[in-house]
Amino acid sequence: MALNITNAQRAEILTQALPYIRKYYGETIVVKYGGNAMINAELKQQVMEDIVLMSLIGVKVVLVHGGGPEITEMLERVGKKTEFVDGLRVTDYETADIVQMVLAGKINKSLVNYLEVKGGRAIGLSGMDGHMITACKKDERLGFVGKITHVDATPVIDLLEKGYIPVISTVGCDDKGNVYNINADTAAAKIAAAIKAKRLISMTDIAGILQDKNDPSSLISEMDICKARQLMQQGVISGGMIPKVECCIDAVENGVERVIVLDGTIPHAILIETLTNEGAGTMVFKEKDDEC
To answer: Can you point out the beta strands (E) in 191-291?
Structure first.
């Protein structure tokens, strides 16, 4: 929907964004993309616009995506039941093939196409390309669900240096050729650390990290990783948010300056976070002091 604003107001908006453009120019941001922002067509368009805009103003953007709902849909179409253990999809050999097909094929290439249509220059990769993501079995009960053992960021860095937006599907492999289904939050954290990203933006379906999970107004706007651990111990951070926060902690401990957990269903949430003083979601960073 077009906004009824004057040209002068448009110019003012752009000048207000200038300090933030300067701040992020030449820096690298990893965006972990999934959830409703991926399913909803209008939101998908807006996310792709945000990423292309960031790229065009000189920010190096890496898009890391999952695709759980699409995998489930494909499994249902072939008559295969989906099972979960501790929130992770049980992945037998056949399911691993389907995960590879859906993530590295359909979803990855459609996102590349979206970015290109919006004016970006994008190239799709999977964690298998160049053995970028090496993995082993995380838990025998889960089958081919991978635990990342190594990230070789060379393909990503090469593409960034040539001005492309790398679009990465979270499929890994081992030296024997086995294919592994990798959790997208985990992969994004490891990739962000490997390429020394300034920011990792994790798009979720809620406002961010909440003091009360049933009260969206109880958003915690920022916390250090010491506070994050305390909130997990106290049960404030619980359920499916625990692995997301653990990934935030892992990224920050391995060199990512800030991790932002935000609601991907808010239109242009990425731009609100990076190019305004308002920000969005919850920012996680290293301890304010040495005591934790």
So the answer is: 199-204, 222-224, 258-263, 282-285
